[in-house]
Amino acid sequence: MSAGFDEVIHAPNRLRICALLAASSVAEFAALREVLGVADSVLSKHVKVLQDAGYVTVSKPTGRGRVKTWVSLTAEGRRSYAGHVQALKALLDTPGLPAGAPHE
C-alpha cells in the first residue's frame, strides 16, 4: 500500500475517532462514546491503541466536581491521519477502475 496508509488508524472506530479529533482540538471521552455509539470499554480499547502509537493524548484534569477524560490528537497523530486519508483517496482514484464499477 501507499506509504501513508496506516493500519493503526484504518480500523473503522479508530478512523472515526481521528476524524472527529482532527476537526477539533480536544474532545471529551463521553462525547466520543456518544458519537461513535459504542460502550466505554470499546472506546477505551481504541483510544489506548492510538495512545500507544503516539497519535493521541489523554488527560484527566482534576478540579472541582466529576473528573472528565479528554482526548486530543498529537502532531504526529494529525500527520498520520492526513497521510492515511491521502492514501485512501489515492486508492479511490486508482486508474483502471471504471467509475461506478463494483469493487471486490
Plain-language structure description:
This protein has 104 residues and is mostly helical. It has five helices and three strands, in the order ααβααββα. Residues 14-92 form the Winged helix DNA-binding domain. InterPro entries: ArsR-like_HTH, WH-like_DNA-bd_sf, WH_DNA-bd_dom, WH_DNA-bd_sf. This is Transcriptional regulator.
What is the spatial order of strands in the main beta sheet? 1-3-2
Give the class-level CATH name: Mainly Alpha
Number of domains: 1
Number of helices: 5
- What is the number of strand segments? 3
Largest sheet: 3 strands, antiparallel
Query: In one word, what is the shape?
Result: elongated
Q: What is the H/E string? A: HHEHHEEH
CATH architecture: Orthogonal Bundle
CATH domain fold name? Arc Repressor Mutant, subunit A
Mean pLDDT: 89
> Helix proportion of residues, in percent?
40-55%
Query: What is the terminal separation in angstroms?
Result: 16 Å
Structural class: mainly alpha
InterPro entries: ArsR-like_HTH (IPR011991), WH-like_DNA-bd_sf (IPR036388), WH_DNA-bd_dom (IPR027395), WH_DNA-bd_sf (IPR036390)
Protein name: Transcriptional regulator
Domain Winged helix DNA-binding: 14-92
